[in-house]
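User: Sequence for EF-hand domain-containing protein below. Tokens please.
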Amino acid sequence: MSAVMESDLKDKKDMKEDLKEKKTAASTKQMMATVEEAFKKWDITGDGAISKYELHAALTQLGMTEAQVDACFRSADLSRDGILQYEEFLEWVFRDPGVVQQYCLKSAKEGLHVVTVDSCQEFWKRFPECENHIEKVFFAAMVILGEDRDLSWTGVKQILKKPHEFLQKLRQFDPGTLTEAKMRKLKYFTSKDFFTQEYFKSHHPIVQALCNWALAIAALDLKSADKR
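Assistant: Structure tokens for EF-hand domain-containing protein:
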């Protein structure tokens, strides 16, 4: 192999590793932002700590039973003082990220309220052609919903030409129907270096909402999703 070819291969490898590091850093930053958001939201009294009552109020909304909440609190309350300080909360969610994953999914699903018949029609007026990777966000959503027969901009148009059906499928989607094969196909898109909340935050609200939702779905542990 010539020196030029070896140099090209090394550059490509370095570029790949650099992109991977950036993606990991973005994911960690996103996870931390979500953890901080959850802590502040669940700290109902705003005293800088989460009581068992507050955790119960938060986790039952995610579908947990009282027994499951009790088990979570015992696992997280390392100091055994009956409250969760931020450091304890942080250690707990990184040790068992399933709860935050469910919180992300719930928040992302609530964010889909911006996807309406009117917003779909308005979207097409602004974006007759795809740009800045927005098609990848729709492809990810189409994979999740099992509408991935035509992963092209034409395919996206066909889906959004029937906004009522699209909205119904979004609202009724059950994460328990996910398969390993579908998850692999989804992560082909969500693992791209540009597929982040940060990248799409200034895009159309539909794109932002679908990006957040696809990332939340892709982060799920399938076993946990089945239990829910």
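The chain has a mean pLDDT of 83.
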